[in-house]
Every structure is written in structure tokens, then in C-alpha cells.
């Protein structure tokens, strides 16, 4: 029994619930010469779902028969690294950022290997294979540079689909070689519609009152931050815990959000060096438990906003922007998060 | 005291400027007096005070005790010290009082009781040294006479002019061209200074060696050395480890075979050479060269392995082989090294008896050094000599070398000369991370009157440029800042911001840009500048940086998460961050709730979800471990009863579960830059018919055909895909076999 989010994932472009126009465009792309594409948008917007549906449109149902392979690469420094590949006979899906700074090796070796081989299956619908690159925005510069020539040179045998959250980390030569497709986050209404459809299919007991019915979904949509995946997972968690949904059903925040919200409240109420020491321990805990530092900063900033005087709010946004930038440029995230906490404390102190 | 106000904020330790003129006092006027300096003096730095006191024959200790004559109290003295002073009732004076004391004390400490005693003690010491010198001179004369006689006899016997000339040459060479260090090397344990217990242990061990061997090294003996066939002596350089080893061997009647870092000591060579020695007796117990008496006691052999920590990359396996030899040897082995705690010295644990040599106290070293100085006709006052000994960190060899260099040009040494010399010969000590941090974070480093320049502070960072910033970052929050111009929070904020900026610099240095010329800038941003804000007394213990530990923990959990995501990948479209942020909370509740609520009945439910996502039992643990805060899996686990938990494990292990793929961990062979590990996927979703096997696999196999014997993994064969796993495996193997044939 899969979770609903995976169970009710649309498998055809026609079934995708929102951004209908985009689906139509993707469909028309598959009929003519398919270009390299770069799909970007926030997580939970439906990028991968659309890509998989597009692949199905391109190659037929065989792309759904996927397997996971693991390969070992040796880096120039003779380190052996294992790398997993998801592939069907027509396409291959890789996450080079799994390899950290060695992603170039994967791009160079693996892509070339695929690209230099021609499709031998005469019944295949397309003559090329598709390589889907996940987390393309966290590819290193070197890896992106390795991509550029490959994309042109081997285009008869290979098409790339890059998936990214933002195009800002992707170098211009790549952007110019791809068709950029933005998948915007669904609006709250769109999310509510999907949630309603899923609950209907799962026969979730819901309030009969039309207004309440809407509020339940709207609340979830709001809590999900326009992330459909999150919204569906919340819906299911709520159902699993309570058995039915109504307006008073509590929306369980994820574990890390609870921790960060508490931290924000603590910072706003007690502004002292001792508190910074405690905050450091909590931040370390979050970072080591794989919460991305930029998510920590974002969540922390937004929950701080609800805790402080209106006068301080612009300062906090300013600081958050500064330190978000530093998180990108730097390597030890704790330094920046800690500095952010210290700066916020003094900002609150000054204005109070 | 105009200067008193000028110095501004007072700091503990040596932050005052030495702008005051020190009056010329009578020679040795502070003899027999012990001083304690505490707090900050208005104009004199602690260093300077110490210098003055020592120059005039006094003693400086750090903590007050019953023997303290006088305490010089400055501002901001530690409360515990003041408490102790009150308890002891010692006389306290301030800086002015100290200067007055200096001016008023007569030469040689006047007629005071303490001064009298000190003088007497000193005289006694000098008398002993004089006696020792006389004795040595007499002994040397006697030796010379005996030797001359022997030589004369030999000369007569040989009646060969050539030989005589050679001998004459040799005898003149022995004294004139010898280094002082070997000339004055102790000839008996009488002359040996310091480390008495260590030497005693060594002698005992060697003395009892034969007896211990007879008893099969089973009895521990009174000092625990009886079980060991070898000893390992360790301590800083220049305190007589090698000398002690040789003396002990001589005393116990052993012929020494020495090997040091100048010899190659690899595993093979040690096995060949040393093990050959170990079963032999010495020839020098039976024969002697022409004109020398046969020393019948010298039948036994003792191996001295000097500089064991110098066994380096050239001596592959040397340490291990040496340790192995120590376990079985039939002759005593004495190992000598400087650093016992190095990881590479680990093999000697429990194999050799540890004998620690410590740095000598000045008092222990003084007599012997004085003897040498007198014999060489150098006039050197005891306090000057003390200074030299302290400056070298009690490295006697270095002191002797310094004396010998000095004697070339001059015969009298005064305090300032010894200070300069000590400074010039100073060993460059690399500070440890803790010392760097405590130095940088000390309030005195950044006080207005500090004598440290910016370069000095940057220099501190370079003692250990990898650790210094981390240590500062770890500890900058636990100081009581000395700066008063901002509140504590603002100071910390500035420091934190500077650290954050330093990380950007660090990225430029260690990132792809490799701009190493920015290192001094990084030093300022990561260590000096943050410290400049928060420097002050530590409020807690200095901690070792947590970043390294946290980083490796993050790495470990990230691997778990990646594993998790790669298992669930067939079902999930999100990347690992999405898995962590959104799936994990839902999974946590879905995978624990049934176990908590329904107990054993819930197990099937949980296993079903796990199978759906190809999660293993380990992944279940990972999910629980990855959570944080009050709703994390680790909290939820506590609500599951242990019987249910073990039933869950049992039930999970009893059934077989779908696995998305097999790990390639077993594939050993490699070819070229890449390796395609051909594991059999154990999956229902795999491709239906063989014909459709991806052609890149085909290609790989063809590529590797040349060296098919080497590549074990080929046996696993290419991926055929049938519905049932066992059948598939069989067919794979048979196919691979067919291919081989």
C-alpha cells in the first residue's frame, strides 16, 4: 500500500491536474524533434511527474519498467565511489550530485558511454535515448562544463532532461542549449482540488457542509506552502491519525518544523549569548539530521517574523537574504546560521 | 603614578608596558626570596618582573605557598589567589613596593635568615661541584696515565714505529677533537643527572633479565617489568636516553649493538639482520684487538634501537616487525623514541616495558652543567646558567653545545648574554590547537597595552591553520569579553559575522579557486578579528571543536538518507531532501503508529508499507534515526514495547522482501576508469524479455572480453530479466558459463 502521494500520481500527460497548457506543449514536443529540456520549478510542483509522463508519451509504456543499477566509479585520486542509476531500456535517470564534488566523473564517463551507443532496437519509437539529470542546479561548474559539448556532439543519440529548482546555478551555455520549461508551484486552489479528488478516491470521511469541506483543504494547502507533495502527505498523515477530517483536525507539522519554530520563539524571547550557545546545539542537530541549511534559514526567518515587532521585520528579511547568500558561497553552514541568529538578536534588541 | 591611569583597562597577565626605569640594584640582592606576581601591574609586564627577579638571584613561582616571601599584587587578581594569600598570611606589596624593595636590598640578600640559608645552600652546592670537578680531573689523569702505560707496553711489544705513530695520533685525537657532548657524556650513573627512577627501572630490568628469561618471563616482578623482553624509553631530546641505555648495558656487562635512524630498518632487513643477532653471543668476550685486555664480561649482547619513531615510510613494516621481535627475543632489546603516543608506535603497547624520561628540573641539571663550565674555565653565574637551561627546555645536549660555542670567543657570560643566546637558539614550538585558542581568546592579547603585533597574532593562526579557526568558533561564545565599549551580545554578533565572512574566504582558498595567498586574510577574519571582540577570561572549559564530529555525523546520516532514497526511488519522484523534509515525517508515523497502537497485529501493516517502498529493516532504523525533535522516530520508538519490536524484527527477517537492486559491494575487479557492476536486479519491474537488454550493457561486456579472466563480475553475467528471481539467477550463471566456454 503506497502512500497516496505515489498511488495517485498521474501517469499520462492528459491526467495531470493543473498547468494544462504546459502538458499540451510537452505533448506537442514529443511529436516533432524532441529538444534538450531544462525543467525547473519549486519542489512539489510536479516536475518529475510531467517528465515521466512525457517519457511515456515518447517511448510508450516500456519506460515504466525501470530498474536500479549501481555502478562503481574511480575518481582521479583512485577513490571508489558507488553510484546508483535508475534506467529503463529507453532512458536513464541519474543524480550526479550524489557524488558530491566528483559529479564530473559521472557526467564524463556515463553520458559519453550512453551517447556513443546508437539505438539498435528498430521498433523503438525514437532513435535517441533520454538521460534525466536530477538536481541539475547542484551540479558543480566542472560537471556543467563537461555537459556542454556532449549535448551538441551526441545529440543524434542522446537527449537530456535536466531537473532543477532554480536556473540561477546553471551556467549560461547550458541554458542556451536547452528549452527552458518552468513548472510553477500549484496555487492553493489547485492543491485543494487535487486534495479533494484524492480524498474522494480514498473515501475519506469529510464534513458534509460545503464551506467546511473547502476550509479543510484550504488549510492543508496553506500549510503545505504550495508544495503538492507535502500537501498530500499531510492529508494522509491527518487521515491516518484521526480517521476522518474536519475543520478542527490539527495539521501535524513535520518534525523539523516543530524544532525550528520553537527555536525562533526562544530567540525572539530571550536574547542572550547563552541562548546563542543553545541555538548552536539545535542548529547542529538540524544540520546533521540532513535538513538543508537554506531550508533551516528560511523556516527560521519566517517563523521569527511572527514573533517580533513589525519594526524589526524588514531587518530580519534583510539579514536572511544576506546569510542565504553566504550559505551558498560558503561551506560551513553553521557559521552563517549562528551569525544570523546573533544578528537577529541584536536587531531585536536595538528596536525594543 | 601618572602611568597608572594611562594604561586604561587592566587585564590579567602580562599586558603592561615596560615603560618604567628599573633602578640598578645590588648584585644578587634577592637571593633566597620567592616572589609571586598576581594581577596586572600598572607599568611592568609579568615577563619583565620575572626577568628582574631572576637576574637578582630570586625565584618566581606561579601560585602562592608557605615558602613565598612576598606577593606582588596588581589589579584584577584572581579571587582564588587572594583568598589563598589571606589564608597564608603572606606579605603583599604593590609595584612601587617591589621597586623600593629592589633598591633597598643589600647585595647577596643582606643578613636575613632566608638569604643566609640560600647563600649557604648555594655555597654547599658550589663546593660539591668543585669537589666533583677535582675528582673527575684526578680520575682522568689516572686514566691517562694507565693508558700511556698500556700504550708504552704495546709500543714495546710491537716495536713498530708506524703503529706507534698511529696510536699517538689516536690518543691526541680523543680529547681534542671530541665534541663536548661526548667528552662530557656521563661515564657512570654517578654523573647522570635527573630521571633517577627511570634509570633505576632500566637498570633493574636489565639486571634481572637473565633471571626473568629463565623463568620464562612469567613473573611480573616488583615494578612490573619482569614480563617484558624489551623496554621502550621515551622522552624529549637531549636528556640522556641514549646515554642511559649505553651506561646500563655497560654496567650489566652487555655488548651493545646499536641501530638508529641512519640505518634502513624495513621489515625484511630487520627480520634478516636483527633476528640473526638475537641468538648469538658477543665475540668481544673472547677476543680483543691488539694491545687491549679481553673484557670477559662482555659475552652477552644487548640491542639498542635508537630513534624508533624515526622508522618512516622507507622502513615499511619496520615497527610491526620490531614489535614482533620484541615478543620472542633472546637478548634484551632497548627501544628509544621521543614520542610514545604516536599512533604508529601502537604496536609496542604491551610488548615493551614503558620507561618515561621527563624534562629535567633546573635544579637537577644545574650541577652537571656547572661542572662542565668550571672544567672548561667558563665563568658563569648559576642564575645565568639556569636561564640557559630553561630557555632550551632542559635540553642538556643543547646547553652543552651552547657552552662550547660560547667558549670559543669568551669566558664570562652574564644574564643578558644568556638571554640573547637562549632566544637565538630557541626551538620553534608548534602550539597545539588548545593553546592557540586560549592565547587568542585571552584578554591580554588584545588589551591596549599588549605587546603582540598583528603579525604575532596572525602567526598564532599559522601554528595550526586548520584547527585554529575551528577552535575559535567553538569557544568564542564562552568568554567574558574584556572590551567594554559594546554589550556582550553586540561583541558576539560582530565576532559571529566575522567568522561567517571568514568562511567565504576559506572557500576561496580551499575551493576551486585555490587562492592560497589569502591565508593571512583568512587568519585575520577567522581567528584574530573574532577574538578581538570577545577576548577575555574563559567562563567555562575550553572545548574541542564540535564541527568535525558534527560534520561526520551529518555525513553518516546523509549516507543513510541517500540509501533510503535510492531504495524508495522507484516509487518516489522527489530527491533526497524532499524525502527527508516531507516523506520522513509521514513515514515515521505510518511505520510506528501501527506498532504502538496494535502491537503485534500492526506488524503486517508496517511490513506492507515497507515492502511497497523497498525499505529494508535497516532503513526502518534510519528513518527513526533521521528525525529530530519531539516527534522524531527516536521518541516514537520508546513507545513501542520491546516484545513488539523484537517480534517485528523476527517477522521481517522470516519473510523475503522485494529488493530494488543488489549492491555491487562484492565486485572486486576493476578496469580502466569505470566499472559497470553487473548485478542481478531482484525486481518484478525489470524488463520482460532478454532481447531488449540495453545495448550499453552489451558493449561493456564486449569491452571487457579481453581480460575476462580478471573480471570476476562477468560471471554474474548481463542482466536477463525474468519474472522470478531464483530462476533468473540460475539462468544468468549458466549463461555466463556458456559465454566463457
TrEMBL record, chain A:
AAA+ ATPase domain boundaries: 33-185
GO biological processes: DNA repair; DNA strand elongation involved in DNA replication
Keyword Nucleus: yes
Keywords for this protein: DNA replication, Nucleus
KW DNA-binding (keyword) present: no
Primary subcellular site in the record, as a coarse category: nucleus
GO annotations of cellular component type: Ctf18 RFC-like complex; DNA replication factor C complex; Elg1 RFC-like complex; Rad17 RFC-like complex
Pfam family, one: DNA_pol3_delta2
Record-linked Gene3D superfamilies: 1.10.8.60, 1.20.272.10, P-loop containing nucleotide triphosphate hydrolases
Subcellular location(s) per record: Nucleus
Matches recorded under PANTHER family: REPLICATION FACTOR C / DNA POLYMERASE III GAMMA-TAU SUBUNIT, REPLICATION FACTOR C SUBUNIT 3
Name of protein: Replication factor C subunit 5
The species this protein was found in: Nadsonia fulvescens var. elongata DSM 6958
Automatic annotation (TrEMBL), chain B:
Keywords, in A-Z order: ATP-binding, Coiled coil, DNA replication, DNA-binding, Nucleotide-binding, Nucleus, Phosphoprotein
Gene Ontology MF term list: ATP binding; ATP hydrolysis activity; chromatin binding; DNA binding; DNA clamp loader activity
Gene3D superfamilies xrefs: 1.10.8.60, 1.20.272.10, BRCT domain (3.40.50.10190), P-loop containing nucleotide triphosphate hydrolases (3.40.50.300)
Subcellular location: Nucleus
InterPro entries linked: AAA+_ATPase, ATPase_AAA_core, BRCT_dom, BRCT_dom_sf, DNA_pol3_clamp-load_cplx_C, DNA_replication_fac_RFC1_C, P-loop_NTPase, RFC1
Compositionally biased intervals (Acidic residues): 682-708
SMART domains, alphabetized: AAA, BRCT
Highest taxon of source: Eukaryota
Ranges annotated as biased composition (Basic residues): 715-741
UniProt cross-references to Pfam families, sorted A to Z: AAA (PF00004), AAA_lid_RFC1 (PF25361), BRCT (PF00533), RFC1 (PF08519)
Domain (BRCT): residue spans on this chain: 25-104
Region annotated Disordered, chain positions: 681-741
GO cellular component terms given for this protein: DNA replication factor C complex; nucleus
Coiled coil stretches, renumbered: 112-158
Main location: nucleus
GO BP field: DNA strand elongation involved in mitotic DNA replication; UV-damage excision repair
The family this protein is said to belong to: Belongs to the activator 1 large subunit family.
Protein's recorded name: Replication factor C subunit 1
Amino acid at each position: 500500500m503506497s502512500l497516496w502521494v505515489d498511488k495517485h500520481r498521474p501517469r499520462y500527460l492528459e491526467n495531470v491536474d493543473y498547468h494544462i497548457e504546459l502538458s499540451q506543449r510537452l505533448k506537442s514536443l514529443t511529436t516533432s524533434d524532441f529538444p534538450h529540456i531544462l525543467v525547473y520549478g519549486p519542489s512539489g510542483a510536479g516536475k518529475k511527474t510531467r517528465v515521466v509522463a512525457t517519457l511515456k508519451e515518447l517511448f510508450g509504456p516500456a519506460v515504466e519498467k525501470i530498474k536500479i543499477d549501481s555502478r562503481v566509479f574511480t575518481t582521479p585520486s583512485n577513490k571508489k565511489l558507488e553510484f546508483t542509476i535508475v534506467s529503463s531500456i529507453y532512458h536513464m535517470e541519474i543524480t550526479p550530485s550524489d557524488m558530491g564534488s566528483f559529479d564530473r566523473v559521472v557526467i564524463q564517463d556515463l553520458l559519453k558511454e550512453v551517447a556513443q551507443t546508437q539505438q539498435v532496437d528498430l521498433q523503438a519509437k525514437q532513435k535517441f535515448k533520454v538521460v534525466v539529470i536530477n538536481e541539475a542546479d547542484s551540479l558543480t561548474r566542472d560537471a556543467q562544463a563537461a555537459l556542454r559539448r556532449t549535448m551538441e556532439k551526441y545529440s543524434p543519440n542522446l537527449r537530456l532532461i535536466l531537473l532543477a529548482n532554480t536556473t540561477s546555478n546553471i551556467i549560461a551555455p547550458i541554458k542556451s542549449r536547452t528549452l527552458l520549461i518552468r513548472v510553477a508551484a500549484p496555487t492553493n486552489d489547485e492543491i485543494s482540488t487535487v486534495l479533494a479528488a484524492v480524498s474522494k478516491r480514498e473515501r475519506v470521511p469529510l464534513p458534509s457542509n460545503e464551506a467546511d469541506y473547502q476550509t479543510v483543504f484550504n488549510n492543508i494547502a496553506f500549510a503545505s506552502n504550495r508544495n503538492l507533495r507535502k500537501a498530500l502527505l499531510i492529508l494522509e498523515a491527518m487521515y491516518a491519525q484521526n480517521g476522518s477530517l474536519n475543520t478542527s483536525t490539527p495539521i501535524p507539522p513535520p518534525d523539523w518544523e516543530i524544532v525550528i519554530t520553537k527555536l525562533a520563539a526562544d530567540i525572539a524571547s530571550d536574547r542572550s549569548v547563552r541562548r546563542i550557545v543553545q541555538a548552536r546545539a539545535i542548529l547542529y542537530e538540524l544540520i546533521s539530521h540532513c535538513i538543508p541549511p537554506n531550508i533551516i534559514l528560511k523556516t527560521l526567518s519566517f517563523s521569527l517574523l511572527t514573533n517580533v515587532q513589525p519594526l524589526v521585520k524588514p531587518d530580519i528579511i534583510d539579514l536572511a537574504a544576506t546569510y542565504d547568500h553566504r550559505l551558498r558561497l560558503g561551506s560551513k553552514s553553521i557559521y552563517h546560521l549562528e551569525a544570523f541568529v546573533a544578528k537577529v538578536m541584536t536587531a531585536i534588541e536595538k528596536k525594543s | 603614578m601618572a602611568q597608572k591611569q594611562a594604561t586604561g583597562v587592566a587585564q590579567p597577565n602580562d599586558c603592561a608596558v615596560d615603560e618604567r626605569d628599573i633602578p640598578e640594584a645590588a648584585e644578587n640582592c634577592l637571593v633566597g626570596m620567592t616572589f609571586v606576581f598576581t594581577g596586572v601591574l600598572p607599568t611592568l609586564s609579568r615577563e619583565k618582573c620575572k626577568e628582574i627577579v631572576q637576574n637578582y638571584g630570586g625565584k618566581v613561582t606561579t601560585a602562592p605557598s608557605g615558602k613565598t616571601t612576598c606577593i606582588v599584587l596588581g589589579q584584577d587578581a584572581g579571587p582564588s589567589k587572594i583568598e589563598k594569600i589571606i589564608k597564608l598570611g603572606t606579605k603583599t606589596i604593590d609595584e612601587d613596593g617591589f621597586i623600593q624593595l629592589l633598591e633597598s636590598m643589600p647585595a647577596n640578600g643582606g643578613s636575613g635568615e632566608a638569604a643566609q640559608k640560600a647563600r649557604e645552600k648555594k655555597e654547599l652546592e658550589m663546593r660539591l661541584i668543585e669537589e666533583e670537578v677535582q675528582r673527575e680531573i684526578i680520575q682522568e689523569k689516572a686514566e691517562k696515565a694507565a693508558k700511556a702505560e698500556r700504550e708504552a707496553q704495546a709500543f714495546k711489544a710491537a716495536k713498530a714505529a708506524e703503529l706507534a705513530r698511529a696510536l699517538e695520533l689516536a690518543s691526541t685525537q680523543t680529547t681534542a677533537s671530541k665534541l663536548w657532548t661526548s667528552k662530557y657524556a656521563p661515564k657512570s650513573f654517578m654523573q647522570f643527572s635527573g630521571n633517577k627512577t627511570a634509570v633505576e627501572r632500566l637498570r633493574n630490568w636489565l639486571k634481572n633479565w637473565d633471571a626473568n628469561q629463565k623463568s620464562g618471563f612469567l613473573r611480573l616482578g616488583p615494578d612490573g617489568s619482569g614480563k617484558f623482553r624489551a623496554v621502550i624509553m621515551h622522552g624529549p631530546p637531549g636528556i640522556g636516553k641514549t646515554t642511559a641505555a649505553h651506561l646500563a648495558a655497560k654496567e650489566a656487562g652487555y655488548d651493545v649493538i646499536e641501530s638508529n635512524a641512519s640505518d634502513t630498518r624495513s621489515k625484511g632487513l630487520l627480520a634478516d639482520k636483527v633476528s640473526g643477532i638475537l641468538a648469538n653471543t658477543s665475540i668481544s668476550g673472547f677476543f680483543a684487538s691488539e694491545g687491549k685486555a679481553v673484557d670477559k664480561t662482555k659475552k652477552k649482547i644487548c640491542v639498542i634501537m635508537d630513534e624508533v619513531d624515526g622508522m618512516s615510510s622507507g622502513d615499511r613494516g619496520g615497527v610491526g616487525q620490531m614489535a614482533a621481535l620484541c615478543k620472542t627475543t633472546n637478548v634484551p632489546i632497548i627501544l628509544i623514541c621521543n614520542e610514545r603516543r604516536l599512533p604508529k608506535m601502537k604496536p609496542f603497547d604491551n610488548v615493551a616495558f614503558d620507561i618515561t624520561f621527563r624534562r629535567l628540573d633546573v635544579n637537577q641539571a644545574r650541577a652537571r652543567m656547572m661542572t662542565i663550565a668550571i672544567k672548561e674555565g667558563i665563568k658563569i653565574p648559576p642564575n645565568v646558567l639556569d636561564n640557559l637551561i630553561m630557555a632550551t627546555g632542559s635540553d642538556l645536549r643543547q646547553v652543552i653545545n651552547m657552552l662550547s660555542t660560547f667558549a670559543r670567543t669568551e669566558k664570562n657570560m652574564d644574564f643578558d648574554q644568556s638571554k640573547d643566546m637562549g632566544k637565538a637558539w630557541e626551538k620553534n614550538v608548534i602550539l597545539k590547537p588548545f593553546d592557540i585558542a586560549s592565547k587568542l581568546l585571552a584578554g591580554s592579547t588584545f588589551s591596549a597595552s599588549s605587546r603582540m603585533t598583528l603579525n604575532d597574532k596572525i602567526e598564532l593562526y599559522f601554528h595550526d591553520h586548520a584547527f585554529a579557526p575551528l577552535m575559535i568558533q567553538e569557544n568564542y561564545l564562552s568568554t567574558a569579553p574584556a572590551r567594554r565599549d559594546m554589550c556582550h551580545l553586540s561583541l558576539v554578533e560582530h565576532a559571529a559575522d566575522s567568522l561567517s565572512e571568514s568562511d567565504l574566504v576559506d572557500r576561496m582558498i580551499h575551493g576551486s579557486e585555490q587562492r592560497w595567498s589569502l591565508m593571512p586574510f583568512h587568519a585575520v577574519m577567522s581567528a584574530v578579528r573574532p577574538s578581538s571582540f570577545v577576548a577575555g577570561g574563559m567562563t567555562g572549559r575550553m572545548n574541542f571543536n564540535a564541527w568535525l564530529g558534527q560534520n561526520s555525523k551529518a555525513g553518516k546520516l546523509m549516507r543513510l538518507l541517500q540509501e533510503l532514497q535510492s531504495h524508495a526511488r522507484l516509487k518516489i519522484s522527489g530527491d533526497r531532501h524532499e524525502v527527508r523534509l516531507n516523506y520522513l515525517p509521514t513515514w515515521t508515523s505510518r511505520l510506528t503508529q501501527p506498532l504502538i497502537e496494535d502491537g503485534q497485529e500492526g506488524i503486517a501493516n508496517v511490513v506492507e508499507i515497507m515492502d511497497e517502498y523497498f525499505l529494508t529493516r535497516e532503513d526502518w532504523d534510519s528513518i527513526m534515526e533521521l528525525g529530530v525533535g519531539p516527534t522524531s522516530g527516536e521518541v516514537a520508538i520508546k513507545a513501542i514495547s520491546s516484545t513488539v519490536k523484537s517480534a517485528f524484527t523476527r517477522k521481517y527477517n522470516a519473510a523475503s522482501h522485494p529488493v530494488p537492486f543488489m549492491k555491487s559491494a562484492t565486485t572486486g575487479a576493476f578496469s580502466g576508469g569505470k566499472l559497470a557492476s553487473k548485478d542481478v536486479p531482484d525486481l518484478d519491474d525489470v524488463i520482460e524479455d532478454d532481447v531488449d537488454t540495453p545495448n550499453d550493457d552489451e558493449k561493456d561486456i564486449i569491452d571487457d572480453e579481453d581480460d575476462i579472466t580478471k573480471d570476476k563480475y562477468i560471471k554474474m553475467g548481463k542482466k536477463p530479466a525474468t519474472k522470478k528471481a531464483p530462476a533468473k539467477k540460475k539462468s544468468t550463471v549458466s549463461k555466463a558459463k556458456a559465454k566463457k566456454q
